[in-house]
Amino acid sequence: MPPPEERGDERILVGTEFADDAAVVRIGDDPTRATVLTVDIIAPLVDDPETFGEIAACNALSDVYAMGGRPLFALNVVGFPDDKLPLTVLQAILRGAARVCARAGVAIVGGHTVRDGELKFGLSVTGEVAVPEILSNRTGREGQALVLTKALGTGFIAQAIKHGHAEPAEVATAIAGMTTLNGPALAIARGFGVTACTDVTGFGLLGHLRNILRGSQLAARLDMAALPALPGALAHAAAGRVPGGRKRTWGSCGRT
């Protein structure tokens, strides 16, 4: 981790230099504790609004777990097309998010809603972490193994859902993964001496791994055949059901 003076503010322990999942800052006088700050907002990946709320909440809370932290409080962040959708849809989304946050022991203490042409939802999350236990993109070590706690391919399944090609079993398996909190996985990882972590979401495995490699000044070798994929994900990818953002960033950044 760069010394504070190189970052310009000694309160910032993890900032934006290597695209970490969240910021980690010191607030208060206790040098052993730090605050984790993140905001994450996504468009719907599934048709059911309550399930979408659950997925979006898990997605945002995961950023705090990826830093080695514990999420504490959250604010809802909403873009809602009230000229196209009834408010009952928004209410269902908020119910789903509240249910996930309750499971995580996170209190939703407010939020902000704006009119938007397209539905979007997420959370701004505040958490805490012990300074010696911070995980980031800069703290990988040579010789370590890359461990994935969930199967890959949610973006491909989401595209298949959008275009009506996903099988019910594929959808159910993807939703089960996307609504599973990463707190238990973090607790298990601690027992195996994990030093670096990232949340594999919008940039795909290659994009997020690239951030760790840049931050930790390492290289990696992947056995593509060993990577776990969701049922149907590879077939949908082969059929061209790939998220648009990944197509745009493939050449310039090496993201999937």
UniProtKB/TrEMBL annotation:
Enzyme class label: transferase
CDD domains tied to this protein: SelD
The PurM-like C-terminal domain, residue ranges: 141-229
Entry-linked InterPro entries: PurM-like_C_dom, PurM-like_C_sf, PurM-like_N, PurM-like_N_sf, SPS/SelD
GO biological process: selenocysteine biosynthetic process
Record domain PurM-like N-terminal: where: 20-129
Enzyme Commission number(s) of this protein: 2.7.9.3
Keywords attached to this entry: ATP-binding, Kinase, Nucleotide-binding, Selenium, Transferase
Example GO molecular function: selenide, water dikinase activity
A GO cellular-component term linked to this record: cytoplasm
Name listed for the protein in its UniProt record: Selenide, water dikinase SelD
Native source organism of the sequence: Nannocystis pusilla
